[in-house]
Specification:
Elements lengths: L2 E7 L18 H7 L4 H4 L6 E6 L44 H23 L6 E8 L17 E4 L19 H14 L13 E3 L7 H6 L6 E7 L9 E2 L4 E2 L1 H20 L2
Helix pairs in contact: 4-6
């Protein structure tokens, strides 16, 4: 049975766009750690949901979770970036894309994804949407709280820690009781995880992330929509990850996929 869910995976890419290959400076390892590695597989529910969308290109190529005018050099970590979230230069010296190339990247990769998302969330067979991410186990250098451990799961609906309406957005993208239900279910399935960092919580709502640009725009309508951030402590660690090959244990990927699906399936059944 197909669940009435839209799954968006905007940062799980693994490719460099052909238009920038000659000026691209990132190593595979730097591009891997800047994005949400392997989320295209961890959140792969394509055989069980109404719609699944995956961006194939690295987050450092085009960041779908930024406004289209939030762009380097004004914002080094913008939709088109000059630096990764770890401060590594994305392009060779003096090769930051010019206005024409930025427009090509936006027109070819950014706007089509957003148009497809808007169309998908309006479909009759979609009754819930999720924007699926992973986050560094501790805040990267670009953040004001750099080095701070993060929860295993963070859910975002633009609200407060209980999912209720608050500033600065003064709206929520799914009902507070829904985000609390999802939080409780994630706490159940991830209650016994043994990770290498001391996390502040198993699951949280809107702390440290209340939802990015995709959640703010696609979550404007009546269909419930929320963001999932999963700590990479769950799979980028000494027991399941090889830093040299960038390989993650297949069993761990399958386990995370199963656990997340348990929560999404229960949530869809509770709509």
């Amino acid at each position: 049975m197909v669940a009435p869910i839209l799954v968006s995976i905007p940062h799980g890419g693994w490719k460099v766009a052909p238009q920038i290959e000659e000026i691209w400076a990132l190593t595979k390892k730097d591009a891997f750690h800047d994005g949400d590695p392997l989320t295209s597989r961890i959140y792969d529910f394509s055989d069980r949901v109404a719609v699944q969308m995956v961006m194939e290109y690295y987050r450092a190529v085009i960041d779908l979770n930024r406004p289209p005018d939030d762009i380097a050099p004004k914002n080094p970590d913008g939709v088109v970036k000059s630096h990764t979230c770890y401060g590594v230069e994305v392009y060779k010296p003096d090769c930051l894309p010019d206005e024409d190339l930025k427009k090509i990247l936006l027109d070819q990769y950014y706007f089509p994804y957003h148009r497809s998302l808007a169309e998908a969330i309006a479909r009759d067979d979609v009754r819930m949407g999720v924007d699926c991410h992973s986050m560094a186990a501790v805040s990267p250098p670009i953040e004001s709280d750099a080095g701070t451990p993060r929860p295993l799961i963070c859910l975002g609906n633009l609200g407060d820690a209980r999912g209720e309406i608050c500033e600065p957005f003064n709206r929520v993208t799914c009902p507070p009781e829904m985000i609390r239900f999802v939080k409780d279910e994630f706490e159940k399935v991830f209650a016994h995880e043994d990770v290498e960092v001391e996390v502040p919580a198993t699951a949280s709502a809107n702390v440290p992330f209340s939802g990015g640009y995709i959640t703010r725009t696609i979550g404007e309508g009546e269909t419930p929509f929320f963001q999932i951030e999963m700590s990479r402590a769950l799979y980028i660690n000494g027991s399941t990850f090889d830093e040299e090959t960038l390989h993650v244990d297949e069993g761990r990927i399958e386990d995370l996929n199963k656990k997340i699906w348990v929560v999404l399936e229960k949530t869809a059944a509770n709509l």
